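User: quick one, fold this
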Amino acid sequence: MSNSPSITAPAGDYKPAGSTAGTAGGIGAPMSARRKFLMGATSAVGAVGTAAIVAPFVASWFPSERAKAAGAPVEVEIGTIEPGMLVRAEWRGQPVWIVKRTPEMLATLDNIKGRLADPDSKSPQQPSYAQNATRSIRPDLLVLVGICTHLGCSPTDRLQPASDWVGGFYCPCHGSIFDLAGRVFSGMPAPTNLVVPPYMFVNDNRLRIGEDSKGA
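Assistant:
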């Protein structure tokens, strides 16, 4: 008895030796219908698999709705903000502060100019319409990006004056202090004033951050 392993030929393609029923099973002969079907099916599955891999890759070329919304302007209701109050919004993933300053708060801005690094806001940290004594369109309403210009920490608001404090913002990371217009005091780690984002008033009670009359 032979110890050679048996080999089973693929069904449908095997023809006994000496068969006269054509040359469908011979070398170089045309493929059978079954083999064509199997190869076609395999190719189709491969194409589907490739499409499944490529589709997410192509989709990644387009920004998501969330990414598009991240840069869109945001509107904030300001009609209910009380004098001396700060409200927070978010624009482009950044905190934005809106402070309604009292006349007493505004009075401090001129008194401390000699202690500030850039009292006249010469550094371009604000739109041209906010390059003034109050760094704002309306004197009473301050709009700032709440990120320290040193290393990107978020300062805390300390709006009320104290014995050694005129009111403003304090960054606990490295000690930078800013006045009630977001101007940095001299000798601080922060190199520039806080940023004023582009903004405009939709009406007396509504503010749009991220867009102004120039389309910024």
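User: anything notable?
Assistant: The helical segments are 33-59, 65-70, 103-111.
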